[in-house]
Sequence to fold (145 residues):
Amino acid sequence: MKLEDVHMNIENSLVNIIGPVGKKIHLGRSRNDLVTTDLRLYLRELSEFTIIRLRNLRLSLAKLAKVYSSDLFPGYTHLQIAQPVVFGHHLLAWAEMFARDETRIENVMSLMNTLPLGSAAMSGTSLKIDRKYVAKKNWLCEGFK
Fold:
């Protein structure tokens, strides 16, 4: 069976997982709400995974920096050898850059940590939706103001 678009594929997957109640997914949301929410949940999971990997990488770099704490290494600038540096310090510089990347990902996560469900196509829905409950179940913040 070939499904029309991403929306139908999401619904079909949901029905396969939870059964016929998955067809009620249309209540209180638009297709745009669904895709935006799905993307946010996916990106949140991917971001959390990436942060864990960055922390592990930084820990490994710090351990290696101790091992190479007295080894010299050519420091480059503009593709030219500029000065000798301690290789351990060079590794710590990379660890610091990855720490900044981690902070950036955390900042982006706070922006995507909102709940668009119930926004509908333009002006919301008339259905009484407990957005706080839905957000809590999906590990998201309270939602758009």
